[in-house]
């Protein structure tokens, strides 16, 4: 049965992808009723999610509005308990402000905006990222000129402020803000420091860690155009690709949702590219904090979950082993005990729901048209 059924299944999947590619190749603009739209320029929407930081959201959206490229700007308030909604509606005329009753996480907020966006190209922008002039146009034009198999274009995210690397043996003050680069070096804000990169896209290592490519690299680093995944904080998505694979996974709540969607895109034959001229300045984790309980738990949990759904078994096993070891080792020191307990709670959560994750892995395998071994998540 498999020898007969397999080719038919592959043919159906291939047909679905070819249809999506054909739609993407056209990227035909939607007439706005005046007949004045420029032929070949796709209708473009920008989606920004807010949660109790109307000040950040207003700054980001005003920069988009000042550029004037977007045909539609959608701001989704994700269940804020403060006065964000009336403030956003007052200070951002000309935008669509949608108020969700509950905070469903970044994925739910972004999906709400995408569903309301009447566009061929949807730009996702973090509310704590301020785009440089021409940001939306650069993403839109790159995607328009790219091959029809390019599903997403990820921008060039620059860290806000200036940063100085601390000596290897330095101990930060308790209230000192620090960020750690991929090599383990600590960096702190400094007026006489250097401007550094936040991201030129997303990659995944052999242990399942999703990470920003070029994190803390010099700001003039020239990045490859091809990259595994896009950053949900500054990227453009082709609507036809989303029609093919679906939207962001809301069960992840926040963190790794862009990496998970990149896996689905890659395994359906789509590609992601980087646009160096689409620049935003990002105040890293201004909304949630990189050491909050929410970050520590969700980051550890979702790394395991996404690996289970999409990565080779070797990556799944390494991810599980390293998570368990990290948690157990952290219990030995009072300084790391809080983090360790959250990591172990994430591990227990995933193990407790393992059958559901394995079922999801099977569904993803059946939907895919590209084998796991053919996808390079480290690109």
Would you kindly provide a written description of the structure presented here, covering whatever features stand out?
This protein is globular. The chain has 379 residues and is an alpha/beta fold. It is built from 11 helices and 15 strands. The strands form 3 sheets. Strands 1, 2, 3, 4, 5, 6, 10, 13, 14 and 15 form a 10-stranded mixed β-sheet that branches. Residues 1-16 and 20-35 have low confidence and may be disordered.
Q: What key phrases describe this protein's structure?
A:
11 helices, 379 residues, disordered N terminus, alpha/beta, single chain, 15 strands, ten-stranded mixed β-sheet
Task: Kindly summarize this structure in a few lines.
It is built from eleven helices and 15 strands. The protein has 379 residues and is of the alpha/beta class. Helix 8 packs antiparallel against helix 9.
């Amino acid at each position: 049965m498999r020898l007969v059924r397999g080719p038919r299944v592959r043919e159906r999947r291939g047909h679905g992808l070819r249809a999506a590619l054909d739609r993407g190749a056209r990227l035909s603009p939607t007439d706005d009723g005046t007949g004045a739209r420029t032929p070949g320029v796709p209708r473009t929407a920008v989606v920004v999610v807010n949660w109790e930081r109307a000040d950040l959201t207003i700054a980001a959206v005003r920069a988009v509005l000042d550029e004037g490229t977007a045909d539609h700007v959608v701001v989704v308030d994700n269940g804020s308990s403060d006065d964000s909604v009336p403030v956003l509606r007052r200070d951002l005329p000309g935008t669509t402000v949608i108020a969700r009753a509950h905070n469903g996480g970044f994925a739910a907020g972004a999906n709400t905006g995408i569903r309301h966006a009447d566009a061929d190209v949807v730009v996702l922008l973090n509310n704590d990222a301020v785009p440089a002039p021409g940001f939306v146009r650069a993403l839109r034009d790159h995607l328009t000129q790219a091959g029809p198999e390019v599903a997403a274009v990820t921008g060039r995210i620059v860290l806000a402020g200036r940063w100085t690397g601390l000596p290897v043996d330095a101990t930060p003050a308790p209230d000192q803000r620090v960020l750690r680069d991929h090599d383990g070096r600590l960096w702190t804000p400094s007026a006489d420091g250097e401007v550094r990169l936040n991201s030129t896209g997303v990659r995944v290592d052999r242990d399942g860690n999703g990470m920003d490519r070029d994190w803390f690299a010099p700001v003039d680093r020239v990045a490859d155009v091809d990259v595994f995944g896009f950053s949900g904080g500054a990227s453009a998505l082709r609507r036809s690709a989303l029609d093919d694979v679906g939207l962001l996974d809301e069960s992840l709540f926040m963190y790794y949702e862009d990496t998970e969607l990149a896996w689905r895109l890659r395994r359906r034959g789509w590609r992601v590219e980087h646009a160096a001229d689409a620049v935003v300045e990002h105040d890293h984790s201004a909304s949630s904090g990189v050491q909050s309980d929410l970050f520590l738990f969700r980051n550890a949990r979702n790394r395991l979950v996404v690996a289970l759904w999409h990565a080779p078994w070797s990556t799944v096993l390494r991810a599980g082993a390293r998570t368990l070891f990290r948690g157990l080792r952290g219990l030995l020191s009072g300084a790391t005990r809080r983090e360790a307990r959250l990591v172990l709670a994430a591990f227990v959560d995933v193990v407790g729901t393992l059958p559901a994750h394995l079922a999801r892995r099977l569904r993803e395998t059946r939907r895919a048209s590209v084998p796991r071994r053919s996808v390079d998540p480290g690109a």
